[in-house]
Amino acid sequence: MSHRVSTRPFRRDDVPALFELFRGTVHRVNSRDYSPEQVAAWAPPETNPARWETLASRFAVVAEVGGDVAGFADLEPDGHVDRFFVHADHQGRGVGTAMMAAILSEAGRLRVPRLFAEVSITARPFFERHGFDVLAEQQVVVRGVSLTNFRMERHLGTG
């Protein structure tokens, strides 16, 4: 069985699999840093299809391992990394690094001066290893529940 990570562009028919990956990651991985109430508010059983359709209108990358979807990330034209999730079964195996490489490549193509994101407690060490700095810890309210995350950024060379 190959553990080689490949990346490809997002396709509209990925939405159901990506939503399930998102829910599974929040419930199985982020749950070590967030309470059951916070996890339930962040990743409820229902999806808002319009929210997920935005992936089609921006740079979005899907990572695969052995033909299975292992992660996804998206980048807005202003350098905002909106979503960045690695499947619970593929943590620590290079999936996030492959997706970050794709994001950095696209950011270079777009010549954006910096990447920025709102990063979970869980993902903060990964983003720090990839050159992001914490600007601020913040509380965000999702479906009436407060969660801690971090505003982070990475300045890019644009020369």
Q: Estimate percent helicity.
A: 25-40%
Largest sheet, order of strands side by side?
A: 1-2-3-4
For the sheet with most strands, the description reads:
4 strands, antiparallel
By CATH, the topology of the domain at 5-113 is Aminopeptidase
Percentage of residues in strands: 25-35%
Termini separation: 41 Å
Described by the principal axes of the CA atoms, the overall outline is globular
Count helical runs.
5
CATH architecture of the domain at 5-113: 3-Layer(aba) Sandwich
CATH superfamily of the domain at 5-113: Gcn5-related N-acetyltransferase (GNAT)
Q: How many beta strands in the DSSP annotation?
A: 7
Elements, N to C (H/E): EHHHEEEHEHEE
Mean of all residue-level pLDDT scores: 94
The first-level CATH class of the domain at 5-113 is given as Alpha Beta
Overall radius of gyration: 15 Å
List the uncertain runs. none
Structural class: alpha+beta
